[in-house]
Backbone:
């Protein structure tokens, strides 16, 4: 590929999957705008860096999700090792409150945060509307396993919601 056509293809793919990548960022961060943007940039960087190695042996969707989920997992693991000391000004609190105005969506993300890491991967792909077949490829398991995990995760989320 020429550099220009390679860049154009990458930009088109990035635009196509931007929404999905932000959803991954929301699930794997504390949803503060800075942390979401940091993770998004890290994912984009890793996608760009590894884009030349994409040979088309799998769907682009599967490859993008695989890279994004691995980067998000590493990012979250690294963040968990670092001590967090953050003071919030009233202005920041108001801004965050405005961004979290959709109570049901916020509640869903709070429940998802309580799931094990592997379940969060499944939820991310499920919320993005991925087919079970693509999810199985991205997660390196069978379609039957994905179906069962989706069912189990729905039950876990219901139980968590009822417990609160």
Residues:
């Amino acid at each position: 590929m020429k550099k220009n056509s390679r860049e154009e293809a990458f930009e088109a793919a990035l635009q196509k999957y931007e929404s999905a990548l932000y959803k991954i960022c929301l699930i794997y961060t504390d949803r503060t705008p800075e942390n979401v943007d940091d993770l998004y940039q890290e994912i984009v960087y890793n996608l760009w860096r590894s884009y030349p190695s994409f040979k088309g042996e799998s769907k682009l969707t599967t490859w993008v999700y695989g890279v994004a989920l691995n980067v998000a997992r590493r990012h979250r693991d690294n963040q968990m090792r670092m001590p967090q000391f953050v003071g919030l000004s009233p202005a920041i609190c108001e801004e965050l409150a405005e961004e979290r105005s959709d109570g049901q969506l916020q509640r869903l993300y709070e429940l998802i945060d309580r799931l094990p890491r592997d379940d969060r991967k499944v939820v991310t792909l499920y919320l993005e509307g991925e087919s079970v077949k693509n999810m199985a490829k991205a997660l390196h398991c069978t379609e039957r396993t994905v179906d069962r995990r989706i069912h189990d995760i729905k039950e876990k989320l219901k139980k968590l919601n009822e417990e609160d």
In short: Residues 3-163 form one domain. The two ends are 54 Å apart (CA to CA). Residues 83-88 have pLDDT under 50 and may be disordered. Helices lie at 3-28, 33-50, 60-81, 90-99, 103-113, 117-127, 132-139, 143-163.
